[in-house]
Specification:
Elements (H helix, E strand, L loop, with lengths): L2 H14 L9 H13 L3 E4 L14 E5 L8 E6 L12 E2 L3 E3 L8 H19 L8 E6 L7 H4 L10 E7 L4 E6 L1 E10 L15 H11 L3 E4 L2 E10 L9 E10 L2 H22 L1 E3 L2 E3 L2 E10 L2 E2 L5 H12 L5 E4 L5 H7 L6 E3 L2 E2 L7 E3 H17 L3
Parallel strand pairs: 3-6, 3-7, 7-18, 8-17
Antiparallel strand pairs: 1-2, 2-6, 4-5, 5-20, 8-16, 8-18, 9-12, 9-15, 10-11, 11-12, 13-14, 19-20
């Protein structure tokens, strides 16, 4: 194992032994702040942690001075892990690192953190090389709604281009990610005794079922999907259901298609209202529907012609890898940062089976991800 590879492993092992489940990132935040200062960074901690229920003060921003005239290049990873992430005991094997099987490993995203720290260390040692300034962004609570990125103090950052290290396989560079709308629907019908006078009721369940039956759900097209995953309503069998709550989402790589799908879903409920409007005891009664769609996060779209994408693909070739620039169906900090004007493709770090006790870090990919990130940073000028 090369010296920089051993340092990478040692740093990673130190990080995973620090408990940092979402909303409990204080200890790793302090550890990383100290490391960044040791490496010569000016460190700033924002106040994001005060804006929601977490024990850490905020996101970490580190400014590492460069030796070349350029705008800073941004490198970002998140500090938190999912559960079970307490008392992680990493097991180092010949080709990979695992947990002991009782917890996750935390390679998502501590592999990314370790790579960024080693990139800075390597740059610091390359005194005769030219490299741009680097702005490091270590975010809180990515795994629970990207809360750190949503509350990041963006005024402290000068750079707008770089890399996020938060994908799995190193031969995939995520350059597209969907915008997502969270959709909540409250349906209010008219309760009635189901055994005595059901005709005097309007079933909220039937209204919702009618709407859903008209609706395009699942895979709508190559770029768009939609789903309802939460349904709550009713308590007893002998009452026509008076109220029902549904929660779902629509997501698309195309903003216009997302807007169209969301409007379609709303229209289906409006049709259901008309369909179930009727006279009861001479009075016109109709169900009521409240449809609320809120954007959870915006889309990511990094052109494949972007210099950072080209730099990553070229660096991959030197490592014997054919890296594919692809789209993702999920979201990460890149989505939030994209909404604030950042261009940050997402590079894999070599982890597998993330969010499970079977999680692994494939060392060969981990080391290649470091070399690719280093090469992309060295090539950056703007």
């Amino acid at each position: 194992m090369k010296p920089e590879e051993q340092r990478l492993v040692d740093t990673f092992l130190s990080l995973v032994k620090i408990d940092s489940e979402s909303f409990n990132e204080k200890n790793i935040q302090e550890f990383l702040a100290a490391r960044l200062k040791e490496l010569g960074c000016k460190v700033y901690v924002d106040n994001a942690g005060k804006k929601y229920n977490t024990n850490a003060k905020g996101n970490l921003i580190g400014y590492f001075p460069g030796t070349a005239k350029s705008q800073p290049v941004v490198l970002s990873s998140h500090m938190d892990t999912v559960s079970p992430g307490k008392g992680i005991k990493p097991v180092v094997k010949k080709t990979r690192i695992t947990s002991d099987g009782t917890t996750i490993l935390g390679a998502d995203d501590k592999a990314g953190l370790a790579i960024i720290l080693e990139v800075l260390r390597t740059l610091k040692e390359q005194k005769n090389h030219l490299y741009p300034p680097v702005e490091v962004v270590f975010t809180l609570t990515e795994e629970n709604g990207m809360m750190g990125a949503k509350n990041l103090d963006y005024k402290k950052l000068k750079g707008r281009e770089g890399l996020i290290l938060d994908n799995e396989e190193v031969d995939e560079l995520l350059v597209q990610g969907p915008a997502v709308n969270t959709i909540e629907v409250w349906v209010k019908g008219l309760a009635a005794h189901a055994g005595v006078c059901p005709e005097k009721g309007i079933s909220a369940l039937e209204v919702a079922a009618y709407a859903l039956a008209q609706m395009k759900l699942g895979r709508v097209d190559k770029e768009t999907v939609a789903n309802f995953g939460v349904v709550q309503g009713g308590q007893v069998t002998n009452v026509v259901m008076g109220e029902l709550y549904l929660k779902g989402e629509a997501r698309s790589l195309n903003n216009a298609k997302l807007a169209k799908q969301t409007a379609h879903m709303k229209a289906c409920f409006e049709k259901a209202v008309k369909h179930f409007t009727k006279k009861i005891d001479g009075k016109v009664c109709k169900p009521q529907v409240k449809f609320v769609a809120v954007q959870r996060y915006p889309a990511v779209h990094v052109p494949k012609s972007h210099p950072m994408v080209k730099a990553v693909l070229a660096a991959g070739k030197k490592q014997g890898l054919t890296i594919r620039a692809v789209a993702s169906g999920g979201g990460c900090d890149a989505n939030i940062l994209s909404g604030f004007g950042f261009t940050l493709p997402n590079l894999g770090v070599g982890c597998r089976h993330c969010h499970t006790p079977a999680e692994t870090l494939e060392l060969n990919e981990f080391f290649k991800a470091f070399q690719i990130t280093l090469a992309a940073v060295l090539a950056y000028r703007k």
